[in-house]
Amino acid sequence: ERETSRFRVDVTVADQDEVIFYLTYEELLERRLGTYSHRINVHPGYPVRDLIVDVTIHETREFSSLNVTSVPGGQKFGNAVSEWREGSRTARLQFDPDPEAMPRNGVIHGQLVVQYDVKRALDAGDVQVEDGYFVHFFAPIDLQYTPKHITFLIDVSGSMSGTKLTQVKTAMDHILTNLNNGDTFNIIRFSTTAHKLGIMRYSPVTVRRAKQYIESLEAGGGTNIDDGLKVAIEEDVEAIVSESVRPHIIVLLTDGSPTSGVTSHSVILKNVRNRNRDRATVFCLGFGRGADMDFLARLALQNHGTSRKIYEDEDAAEQLTGFYRELSTPLLLDIQFSYSGDAVMVDTLSKTHFYNYFEGTELIVTGQTENELDARVRANITGKGRNGQFFMGVTDWNLVSPPDHHLLSHLHLAPTPPNFIKRLWAFLKVKDLLAEEKAARGPHDRMVAQKKALIIALENHFVTPLTSLVVVQPDQEHCKDYEDDEDGEDGETRDEVSSSGQRTQKGPMQRDDNNHSQSLDSQNSVSHAFNPASIHVLSGDEVMDSNHFIHNMAAPYPISLSAAPTTGIIGCPVMVLLTTLLLTIVTKMQVHIAIK
């Protein structure tokens, strides 16, 4: 599955016995193109007689849109989805397919994509507060569009021949058509060497000329990324000198690693830093399996951009145009959040400086407080817009609380539900630190970021590139306790960590016919594929929920999951160590998936 990480646990299961696995996670939904999107994978892998998916959304503002779609290439769920509105801020969706409408083989395989947004205004957004932590969501509307300068840096090396280059041409035709009035642009192709079209201001004539240039592209030669970036930055500097108050964006598209000219990753990164000097934001797109995504991620992060994988599939052109749409309309640049007053602990804040704010997105800042947030706390938001300096001072906070815990009680069997905002703070801090580590320009800075991220990850049981997932089988005494009190308090599942693979769980022991406990083993396997915003259904019941967070559960199994450093974990009882990437976390919905 696209954008899906794989979580695998090997267990031994008695013949004809049943195993149900509970997995709980939280996720931060990113707002893209004006909507929050949550993908729910529905493919149990075998015929299912009755299947129900319930999605409940609790919001702090009124809905402006809400719909359910399916993904290209997946099964069409059609009229199997029903919708109820419970007031203007709560909605429920249910997927309940008719067994008669199931595929002939009875196997469901597809995705439900829930998309929604809320009503907004030209304001500082919402601030949620809970037990000493706050999160600030900033997504104002009615800001004036700021014309941009954008450079498309396109790999036309030999490996781009055939379908890839055809799809790029299709995407660029659409992108050029949808440039905005006032934009300036450039197109640079590179293989063994780089060649530029030249900087042009958007008009029907220049767009027609650019499309002819794109159509003439042919694949061949090596991959000289350094030369391509050199030409792109030199051209961008020329544009900056002529118009300084304008977002400058470079979009690099490549399907491989450097093979011509400078091929050392570290040298290329250094060259780009020295040439760019923080003037242009660099976004990197890796096309297909051969793209070096780690290198592209470092290149983008060191130049204040992001990277994304473009999957080599029939909809690759749509993926490319979709990415462009996300950054096509910059509203603000050089945005800085600052908080004054005694309540906010400034040294605990997550990222507060953002190079761009694009239409349809959302900026998020979180931190700790020493006491209740009130009118004594002032937030200043500054930046640059179309008309020059942008300033928004906030003292009249729109303070809201997360959903009442009773709405989420069925998701958390631990005695005390977790503090969602605290976990979001920890997640964003770790995410920022891992980005700092990847963008670090020297070993000392890299080590400092790693140490800080490791401390927060371990305290919050997050699985990251610096920590491992530890799966531990309880000892026999604990197993007997579970058996003796399956229906009592000791038989309840204990959920301590709730990100994908980022939790500690202790649950009732499943038994075979001889009352022997099951052990972890490499002969039989139960796998669970998951996405920062989706579920791969196995069996049993699964549940998700949140207030800007998703939670998902599946069923009790006698193991304990926790995060630990990737070194020095010798001596634990039977366990499996899994190292996985930190997954993105957010949403505001509740999902219950039941297979009967």
From TrEMBL:
Keywords: Membrane, Transmembrane, Transmembrane helix
Biased composition (Polar residues): 498-507, 516-525
Record's keyword annotation contains Protein biosynthesis: no
Transmembrane segments: 568-586
InterPro entries: ITIH, VWF_A, vWFA_dom_sf
Biased composition annotated in UniProt, kind: Acidic residues: 482-493
Cross-referenced SMART domains: VWA (SM00327)
Region (Disordered): 480-525
VWFA domain sequence ranges: 149-327
GO annotation, cellular component aspect: protein-containing complex
PANTHER family named among the record's database cross-references: INTER-ALPHA-TRYPSIN INHIBITOR HEAVY CHAIN FAMILY MEMBER, INTER-ALPHA-TRYPSIN INHIBITOR HEAVY CHAIN H4-LIKE PROTEIN
Protein name, entry field: VWFA domain-containing protein
Origin species: Petrolisthes manimaculis
Source organism phylogeny: Eukaryota, Metazoa, Ecdysozoa, Arthropoda, Crustacea
